[in-house]
Write a structure and sequence with these properties.
Layout lengths: L1 H13 L1 H22 L13 H12 L7 E7 L9 H16 L3 E4 L10 E2 L3 E8 L8 H10 L1 H5 L3 E6 H6 L6 H18 L2 H25 L8 H30 L4 H28 L7 H22 L1 H9 L16 H14 L1 H16 L7 E2 L11 H12 L8 E6 L54 H15 L4 E4 L3 E3 L2 E8 L6 H21 L4 E5 L1 H35 L3 H26 L15 E2 L2 H31 L2 H28 L7 H33 L25 H9 L1
Parallel strand pairs: 6-12
Antiparallel strand pairs: 1-4, 1-5, 2-4, 3-4, 7-10, 7-11, 8-10, 9-10
Helix pairs in contact: 1-2, 1-11, 1-13, 2-9, 2-13, 8-9, 8-22, 9-10, 9-12, 10-11, 10-12, 10-22, 10-23, 11-12, 11-19, 11-21, 14-22, 15-20, 15-23, 17-18, 19-20, 19-21, 20-21, 20-23, 21-22, 21-23, 22-23
Length: 772
């Protein structure tokens, strides 16, 4: 590998013009794909193997219009207009009719029509709608059409807020000044690390070129696959930080080789052979660790992992090709435009002294560092998984504002009711009913749903069966009606249930809407879902053999995700750890070093989990992050953090151990090699960690709570890993283990080089000594 990288670096120096042209073509081509053919970032529309998906599949047979992506539209009073005014109510009704006429809308509630669902009081009107198709088919054109549809209400002075899928479209990931602040702070760190404006700008330039390609390709992939809105943010966080760090390591080694007298091409080759080798293994570890997210069993989590891994892989490619070409173009002018009074090389002596100090006091430092990490990990014991919901969003987000209006006017549970779908066994028989018109009361959640089925005289023409209503030719089956009534009776008596809507029965399928008492993200709501599934629905199912009964909706869907992630968590952890161990074994030909590295990484991950739990779940200082309430940890955040942190921790482990091993093989001294390795890499690791911390922290102001959690967790993890772990715990343990660190079957210890012979004394000095 080292020989190949040496040759690659030299080739990029000699053919640098071709490398620049190739990267320009790649950036231009990726940019065209992203801008012209880029898709919409959306949440996953299917959850294979879950009860929610089974509810959707059952519902699609008799209520196909109720299975598409959902949105919530809230009409709220203002000082200029209130729904209680009949003239204002008329404009709201006209807006609802306009929504129903939209080509892509399959069904919409209407509280002004009896039996058509929705919520209405003197201050607010709430309707829910279903789009046709899947989430990936909903785009800006639908949002524009929806905005036009509600224009009559807005013109009358009514405030209109969107929630659900529409809110997600409104909050597509966008870059902002905060990311620029992170890059600016990274530039400051690079200036202090290199002491040269020119050298400091190179890692920034390389990472920006790589990120431009990565983001464009991720945006283009959104047109082919369903990619969550969080994906580009996570990819940017890790990609920019990793890209700057990888370039930093190679540029540092290149400058050292120039200082030792190498010519430009030789210096690039040696830098690639040593630091480039570490970049390949560090980046490969990150990529494989993140790809382990595919084992989570949740498709959108795996795709976020793939997007992030793509960004890191492109950063590695940029560091191994574009960076050597840039270094070849600059040559020995890289140290021009120096920063006055900054002498970064002087810090090596101080770090060498620190390494020797830790080596002499290894036991105390190992014990104290371990205790600190364990103490920070304590809050993890109380970690509680929660759900993604509009009620957890930032108060600045429109979806949160829509939720607040509904919660204040009607109750928190009305924003996201559950849906029970029941289907009795047997062959359906189509019977032409007489004067029976099923109507729909409302629906909510991931699938859509609910409302009573009533027999009444045929409505006048203007109240004809709405688009998306159940098929009136399907007569309600008696057994389905009895099952639905039994469900309604049992569920309505459960504590925590506010109301159960009248069942809608078409053929052998029945649906009921269940309104919980508490907010979507409340622990009591999650407990209610489990109770309904495990007790009430099971009892009805057991009493009616062959009947399929499922609980669906938005909250149950997210709870299913949490359950799936929890079931697969151990699989992901084991897979990531095993792959990382194999890569470290290949890189260092050691058994003890990889095992020790994995244990240290698990300690730092536990500590970062503890900090995130204390801040978000316990509420310690949460207001400083722009969040107005303590919130549970979203179910897949720990899974993401584990994969990302484990991969990032291996970055610093690889760079530190590569230099220690180099010295150990040269001297055969396990203690002095650790001291030398710390002195040579500590400044580099500290600078790289500061860059990562600044880049991650720059994403904390993002309004999305998921991004906040991940940004804070990654920043804390990197801070602890680069200080407590890499500069205290690792050197202390390596000093205690000595030669055992590098044990490998069949390999002998390296032989120290013979001491240099003392120079022979001059003849006059020898004669003088003999005389005396």
């Amino acid at each position: 590998m080292a020989r190949f990288l040496d040759a690659l670096g030299r080739l990029c120096v000699r053919r640098r013009r071709a490398v620049f042209e190739l990267w320009a073509v790649v950036m231009l081509g990726a940019g065209v794909l992203g801008i012209v053919y880029g898709g919409m970032f959306v949440q996953q529309s299917t959850l294979p193997g879950t009860e929610t998906q089974r509810a959707i599949d059952t519902l699609s047979q008799d209520f196909p219009a109720m299975t598409g992506p959902t949105a919530t539209v809230v009409f709220h009073e203002t000082p200029q207009a209130a729904p209680a005014d009949w003239r204002v109510a008329l404009t709201i009704g006209r807006s609802i009719e306009n929504i129903g006429k939209m080509k892509r809308v399959a069904f919409v509630e209407n509280p002004y029509v009896p039996g058509m669902g929705g919520l209405k009081d003197d201050n607010a009107v709430v309707v829910r709608l279903n789009f046709t198709g899947t989430m990936s088919e909903v785009g800006h054109a639908d949002l524009d059409a929806l905005n036009r549809a509600v224009e009559p209400a807005r013109m009358a002075g009514v405030e209109v807020k969107f929630g659900g899928i529409v809110a997600m479209i409104l909050n597509q990931p966008k870059g902002g000044p905060q990311e620029g602040v992170g890059i600016a702070l990274a530039l400051v760190v690079l200036l202090l690390a290199f002491g040269s404006y020119l050298a400091a700008g190179i890692p920034i330039l390389v990472s920006m070129c790589g990120m431009a390609v990565a983001y464009s390709l991720i945006h283009f992939s959104a047109s082919l696959f369903q990619i969550a809105p969080t994906a580009p943010m996570v990819a940017a966080m890790l990609g920019i930080g990793a890209g700057i760090d990888y370039a930093l390591f190679i540029v540092t080694r290149y400058r050292q080789q120039l200082a030792e007298g190498d010519d430009v091409e030789t210096a690039v080759g040696h830098a690639m052979a040593h630091s480039g080798h570490a970049v390949v293994f560090a980046g490969g570890t990150v990529v494989f660790a993140i790809c382990g997210l595919f084992l989570s069993g949740i498709e959108f989590i795996g795709r976020i992992g793939i997007a992030t891994a793509l960004a890191v892989a492109i950063m590695v490619a940029a560091a191994l090709t574009l960076l050597p070409a840039i270094l070849g173009a600059l040559g020995d002018r890289i140290d021009r435009y120096r920063l006055p009074r900054v002498r970064p090389d002087r810090s090596s002596r101080r770090w060498t002294a620190w390494g020797r100090h830790v080596d002499r006091h290894a036991w105390p430092y190992a014990i104290v560092a371990t205790l600190v990490l364990l103490a920070l990990s304590v809050p993890t014991l109380s970690l509680r998984f929660g759900v993604m919901a509009d009620s957890m969003s930032s108060p600045k987000m429109e979806a949160r504002q829509a939720y607040e209006i509904v919660a204040r006017e009607f109750g928190a549970g009305h924003y996201s009711p559950f849906v029970i779908v029941a289907k009795v066994p047997g062959e359906e028989k189509r019977v032409k009913p007489k004067r029976v018109v099923p109507t729909v009361d409302g629906r909510e959640g991931l699938t859509g749903l609910t409302g009573p089925a009533v027999a009444e005289p045929s409505p006048p023409p203007r109240q004809a069966l709405p688009k998306g209503a159940p098929d009136p030719d399907k007569k309600p089956d008696k057994d389905a009606v009895l099952v639905a009534q039994e469900l309604q009776t049992r569920v309505s008596e459960v504590p925590g249930v506010v109301s159960v809507g009248e069942p809608v029965v078409t053929g052998k399928t029945a649906i009921l809407q269940v309104v919980p008492r508490d907010a979507p993200h409340a622990e009591s709501t999650t407990d209610l879902v489990h109770h309904l599934r495990d007790v009430e629905i099971r009892a009805v199912r057991d009493a009616n053999p062959g009947t399929e009964i499922y609980l669906g909706g938005e909250n149950p869907a997210i709870i299913d995700i949490a359950a799936t992630v929890g079931d697969r968590m151990l699989t992901v952890v084991v897979a990531v750890v095993v792959v990382a161990l194999l890569l470290l074994v290949i890189a260092f030909r050691s058994v003890v070093v990889p095992v020790k590295a994995a244990l240290m990484n698990l300690l730092s991950i536990g500590a970062s989990f503890g900090v995130v739990t204390a801040v978000f779940q316990w509420g310690w200082g949460i207001e400083l992050l722009g969040v107005d309430q303590a919130i549970p940890i979203m179910s897949f955040i720990p899974l993401f953090m584990f994969a990302l942190i484990f991969g990032l921790s291996m970055d610093y482990e690889v760079f530190l151990l590569s230099r220690i091993k180099e010295e150990y093989e040269r001297t055969g001294d396990p203690h002095e090699s650790v001291v030398t390795g710390i002195g040579a890499t500590a400044r580099l690791i500290t600078s790289a960690a500061l860059i990562m911390i600044f880049v991650f922290a720059s994403f904390v102001p993002q309004p999305d709570p998921m991004v906040k959690m991940m940004a804070l967790g990654l920043a804390v993890a990197v801070a602890m890993d680069a200080t407590i772990v890499r500069l205290v715990l690792v050197p202390a343990l390596m000093s205690l283990l000595g030669h055992a660190n590098w044990w490998w079957p069949g390999r002998s210890r390296p032989v120290p080089p013979p001491p240099e012979p003392e120079p022979e004394p001059a003849a006059e000095q020898l004669e003088l000594e003999l005389t005396t």
